[in-house]
């Protein structure tokens, strides 16, 4: 299969020729599947047979292209499932370098425009897949979420997005970042499409229902610190409190700063990142953006003692959440602290934004829980929303709740 390289302002790094109707990926697709005719954008971490995988970095592509040629690289199982269900492959999309960022900025490619708020960054690392969907170049944006890489661009671009329960979808034939936290996820413009994709990708045997009337826990203190708290609170008062059992959760039960969520996550993720990519970085000395490289070099310094202490803290956090979820079925939190930073934001602003994001997104990540972003609001003409966090295996149950709320 021949491929066409990305164009300026395109979210794609590789696209199949427009007239090549008999390509391998067209033949793999079922024209009568549940996803018939829906366009699929694939983050450039997923391996696809006979296509290179660049992981957002030209040096990575160069150093791995021969390995791809000399070995039978297989297509990732989720990509296969989507194609077999009728999805139409539109191309591989830009990702932040090695997927180790949340901002959707990659110095090796043309600047991505956030179609939902052009003066604001698109969010990453599944940035290209999100832009492809929000700009209507695709209907399904396949991505990964380790520290928020589905949830953040979904929030910043007004899309539905989910971090799936860790481990229910195999991360085979793809470039990993931190396997203990890596998950496969997707973004769509509407809930109906999102449900179709979820039914195809999520193994039914991994799922469990919420029995009885769902009980919602409202993370009161987290909403108090969100920039879009007025919209969130108004929606909760109108849509949740009158119809469901709700419980306000305050800082004595859920204090992310005291729980040290961001710091725990950084250490555990960073240690695994260096295990995944450290040897390649030291041998190849790749050209990587300064902010990402500085974090990668920090990953190298993480000690076994730091990892052991972080794992102990993670265990305590998981135990705490298990107790919390004895009284609720769904935890409601802001997905992001607010809208996306502006494109002209300085490095200090972006660093602070990343830190605030990780405090929120690492909660589900550390516990391996599913989190569904609901694209409900706008603030200053830019998208934002809130999330439902469920128990393990409640991925489809969260979607059913969202459908119930949308149909009111």
In short:
With 408 residues, the chain is of the alpha/beta class. The chain has helices spanning 24-28, 58-70, 77-84, 127-134, 151-157, 191-201, 220-224, 229-239, 256-259, 261-284, 290-301, 304-324, 347-367, 395-406, and strands at residues 4-5, 12-15, 39-43, 88-93, 140-145, 160-163, 183-188, 215-219, 245-249, 330-334, 371-379, 382-389.
Low-confidence stretches: none
The secondary-structure element order is EEHEHHEHEHEEHEHHEHHHHEHEEH
Summing up helix and strand content along with how strands pair, one would put the structural category as alpha/beta
Mean pLDDT, to the nearest integer, reads 93
How far apart are the first and last residues' alpha carbons, in Å? 47 Å
**CA-based gyration radius:** 20 Å
Work out the helicity level: 25-40%
- Oligomeric status: single chain
- Tell me, briefly, the overall form: globular
Enumerate the strands of the largest sheet in spatial order, edge to edge or round the barrel.
1-2-4-3-5-7-6-11-12-10-8-9
Major sheet: 12 strands, mixed
If helices are DSSP runs of H or I spanning 4 or more residues, what is the number of helices? 14
Instruction: Please state roughly what percent of the residues sit in beta strands, choosing from under 5%, 5-15%, 15-25%, 25-35%, 35-45% or over 45%.
Output: 15-25%
Number-wise, the strands total 12
Provide a descriptive summary of the structure in words:
- The protein is of the alpha/beta class.
- The protein has helices at 24-28, 58-70, 77-84, 127-134, 151-157, 191-201, 220-224, 229-239, 256-259, 261-284, 290-301, 304-324, 347-367, 395-406; strands at 4-5, 12-15, 39-43, 88-93, 140-145, 160-163, 183-188, 215-219, 245-249, 330-334, 371-379, 382-389.
- Strand 1 (4-5) and strand 2 (12-15) form a beta hairpin.
- Helix 10 (261-284) runs antiparallel to helix 12.
- The longest helix has 24 residues, at 261-284.
- The radius of gyration is 20 Å and the shape is globular.
- The N and C termini lie far apart (47 Å).
- The relative contact order is 0.14.
- The mean pLDDT is 93.
